[in-house]
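// run 5 | inverse folding | seed 20
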């Protein structure tokens, strides 16, 4: 019998499974082949001019390119940090032009939209392309099609191409300065605290700030501490000031903070031993060590192979002040004097304090704000008796009386050098 019966039923199942596997395997094979770089032209001159803006929209109006980075940690790829519409952008291609024979290679990218999109239609994406095996391209163009003319595409330098050894120990990334930022006094104090704790570089993604702040930033740029990355994200997308989508027609959360953080990790991957991802009103205060260098040495010894260190955030409300360190010459400067805010809110039952991170950038693939999404090695929570984040801002538990807060004067240990350094900056800038 051909039809019916247990035997032929079994045969049919085997047949279907075999067919399905053949189709799957050949599909996977074709997928692998399609991501391999293909030569589409030869003997042309590779152009020199490049796109200089930090945010470059592609002609599809759905893709923004931030910057390409060479990444050889898993295979030889160009990883382009970008922002894409999570549904509308389905295909993107890397176009490489290789000297000396002017070969143009096209490879299909893997578009990896980060999982922390929080409901917004646009999200951070890694646009990852295999590089031609026989050349180390210095530039790449990104296009929605494998066909076209490379001369008409914007061209980007591939950063991190040359091996470097870390030239600094600590770099702080401030992900988005926006809303005509004018908290001048607190900013200067944070900067001086970072420097006291061991920071050599602060990278700021600047959307907008006040004239007075511009003056202060100019001082720190000339000093060599601050690097400004212009961040005109709202010229391209409707930005939200919230981190999660409120069904309000906005495109991306919190001024594209997550994209800025990821770009900052890659931008400093080779040049900084550690990268700190926090806001300008947050300071990681070590309690057992005088500075970050000794603290990180000890944390690394205790946690070999760990590349991500998480620190707990604690709120010191700007509404609760002390008279100590009420420095009269500072009262004309806009912003908060953190030395006067040494009361912290107690932990709440059922509320987990958010964390911020010190990372080894070479061990991180994708980062979010309070944790990493992909990394080599594990993450470790640093106990609050080793360090906590001093975060001076409007209260979260505003109804608590002063007596219910915890007096914590750890910051005062640094008072004399902090006051001296802040005065130096103030007299050279705003006073
Ligand atoms: C992109 O936007 C510009 C200006 O709004 C418009 O002229 C153009 O047609 C758009 N392109 C696509 C592919 O939607
Ligand atoms: C600080 O001193 C000024 C006078 O110089 C005073 O007006 C203000 O109330 C004081 N603030 C605090 C919190 O002590
Ligand atoms: C300020 O710092 C000095 C040491 O630099 C210390 O002796 C003094 O106690 C500190 N002041 C306060 C109020 O903690």
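// decoded
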């Amino acid at each position: 019998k051909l039809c019916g019966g247990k035997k032929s039923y079994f045969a049919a199942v085997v047949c279907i499974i075999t067919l399905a596997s053949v189709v799957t395997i050949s599909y996977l094979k074709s997928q692998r082949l399609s991501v391999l770089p293909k030569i589409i032209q030869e003997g042309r001159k590779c152009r020199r001019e490049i796109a200089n803006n930090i945010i470059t929209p592609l002609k599809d109006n759905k893709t923004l390119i931030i910057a390409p980075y060479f990444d050889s940690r898993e295979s030889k790829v160009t990883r382009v940090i970008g922002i894409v519409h999570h549904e509308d952008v389905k295909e993107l291609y890397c176009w490489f032009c290789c000297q000396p024979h002017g070969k143009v290679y096209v490879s299909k990218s893997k578009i990896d939209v980060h999982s922390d999109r929080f409901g917004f239609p646009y999200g951070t994406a890694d646009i990852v392309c295999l590089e031609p095996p026989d050349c180390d391209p210095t530039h790449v163009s990104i296009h929605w099609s494998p066909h076209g003319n490379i001369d008409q595409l914007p061209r980007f330098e591939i950063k991190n191409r040359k091996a470097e050894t870390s030239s600094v120990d600590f770099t702080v990334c401030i992900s988005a300065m926006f809303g005509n930022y004018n908290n001048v006094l607190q900013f200067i104090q944070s900067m001086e605290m970072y420097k006291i704790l061991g920071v050599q570089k602060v990278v700021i993604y600047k959307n907008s700030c006040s004239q007075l702040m511009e003056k202060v930033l100019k001082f720190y740029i000339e000093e060599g501490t601050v690097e400004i990355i212009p961040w005109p994200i709202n010229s391209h997308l409707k930005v939200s000031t919230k981190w999660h989508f409120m069904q309000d027609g906005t495109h991306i959360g919190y001024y594209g903070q997550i994209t800025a953080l990821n770009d900052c990790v890659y931008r400093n991957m080779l040049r900084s031993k550690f990268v700190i991802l926090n806001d300008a009103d947050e300071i990681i205060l070590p309690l057992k060590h005088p500075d970050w260098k000794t603290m990180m040495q000890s944390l690394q010894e205790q946690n070999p192979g760990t590349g991500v260190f998480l620190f707990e955030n604690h709120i010191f409300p700007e509404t609760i002040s002390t008279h100590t360190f009420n420095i009269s010459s500072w009262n004309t400067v806009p912003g908060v004097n953190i030395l006067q805010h040494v009361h912290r809110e107690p932990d709440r039952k059922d509320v987990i304090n958010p964390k911020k991170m010190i990372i080894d950038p070479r061990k991180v693939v994708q980062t979010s704000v309070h944790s990493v999404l992909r990394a080599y090695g594990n993450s470790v929570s640093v106990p609050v008796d080793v360090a906590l984040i001093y975060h001076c801002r409007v209260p979260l538990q505003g109804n608590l009386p002063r007596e219910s807060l915890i007096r914590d004067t750890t910051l005062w240990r640094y008072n004399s050098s902090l006051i001296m350094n802040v005065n130096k900056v103030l007299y050279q800038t705003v006073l």
